[in-house]
Amino acid sequence: MRDVKPEGKRARQRRATRHRIVESALELFVGQGYAATTLEQIAACAGVAVQTVYFHFGNKRTILIEGIGVKVVGDDEQVAMIDRSWAQEALTTTDPAHAVEVWVTGSRSIFARVAPLLWILRDAVGADPDMAREWEINQRQRRTDHRAFAQHLADLGALAAGVSADRAADIIYTLFSPEMYHLLTIQCGWSPADWETWIHRMLTDALFAGPDPASPPTPGASSADEARPA
């Protein structure tokens, strides 16, 4: 096994500076808007010279893209989301109900960190071809990851009759879309916990032969609105 060399002092300082710039920029993007934020403001918030921001990133777009990548996985380690411990747990367990629970909970954590940034990226698609390409890359990666999860459930023989791995991937990709999360948590005012409960129920009902008996009950739901959180 190849030894991994410890990170040197200069590399640690450079990484810390990039992290500070990214976190400062994301705070400004969400707080006052992407278009209104300048590199000078980012530099001031991060406590660095504007030339330092230019040296590390060059422009706001690059900062936003790196920030989204960091928030998706939760840190700046070079480990893809699909290779994270929680994702691997969902992709290796032989218990379909547990796999769904882990996948839903992990996805909720990701959305809690990255949803406002994805909306900034999506809003910029029509005016910026580079942002449009980044959005497409993000969408393709999401679909690839959800397809891997769907295939795992298919391999376990957990999918309902008539639900193929491809159809399951389509369902998961749609339910776990940033648009769905934004619509429910921002426009409809649901809490992230409400979103998690509803997504869990919708996913198990759609993919498995019947409702998952381990599915958490919807707080305050009646027979007329049992699919919607109270």
From TrEMBL:
Keywords: DNA-binding, Transcription, Transcription regulation. One of its GO terms (molecular function) is transcription cis-regulatory region binding. Residues 15-75 form the HTH tetR-type domain. PANTHER family: HTH-TYPE TRANSCRIPTIONAL REGULATOR BETI, HTH-TYPE TRANSCRIPTIONAL REGULATOR RUTR. It comes from Planobispora longispora. This is TetR family transcriptional regulator. Residues 38-57 bind DNA. Coiled coil: none annotated. Residues 210-230 are annotated as: Disordered. InterPro entries: Homeodomain-like_sf, HTH-type_TetR-like_transc_reg, HTH_TetR.
